[in-house]
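User: I'm putting together notes for a lab meeting next week and I want to include a structural view of one of the chains we've been expressing. I don't have a solved structure, so I'd like a prediction I can at least talk through. The sequence is below, exactly as it appears in our construct file.
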Amino acid sequence: MPTTTPFTALGKGNGLASCAYRKTFNAATHSGPYTLQEIMQLYWNTSSIRVTATEIAGSSPRSLDVTLDFTTEPFERVCNSDAASQPFRLAPDNGSTPTENQSYIGFDESINKFFLNIPEIIFNGIDDEGFISSGNDAFAGDPNPDRGKPATDSSGVGKTWSIDCGSISGTDSATIQFGFYTYS
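Assistant: Thanks for the context. Below is the predicted structure for the 184-residue chain, given as structure tokens.
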């Protein structure tokens, strides 16, 4: 795990750099629900996401092991402006509301919990691009409905992620593992 410099962020009084979007949690398309402590861990400390998968079809199964590294250090996430180098976004100060094809952190007031809406994170799969999506039905309506397989997260967060490994035709197992910064 990479090491980073400790810092203090006053934020919006909720432990995050700005407010989360006030929206309704949908288990079919959102990952969660999360406690404030879990969502803070994901937002501030995620340094990488590792995807591993094994294909069961064919005479010589193929495997995938890809790590996506995010370059924005935790103290730089206070400004919440670099979507390309951090995995999770918060509400902007201009009050705009995200659509469901945008990544964001949401808060459902009826259950008092946070959630993630991440339509997809792209990585290099086998033979073509792969995708990580949040939610149970991340690939609903897809012409190949079996390509998105449930994935587990060994850190205990990211409870409802699905993956598409690219051209892997039958995925026997898939895992998503979050890497977190440690503080010196």
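A couple of points you could mention at the meeting. Residues 3-183 form one domain. Residues 26 and 135 are 8 Å apart (CA to CA).

User: Perfect, that's what I needed.
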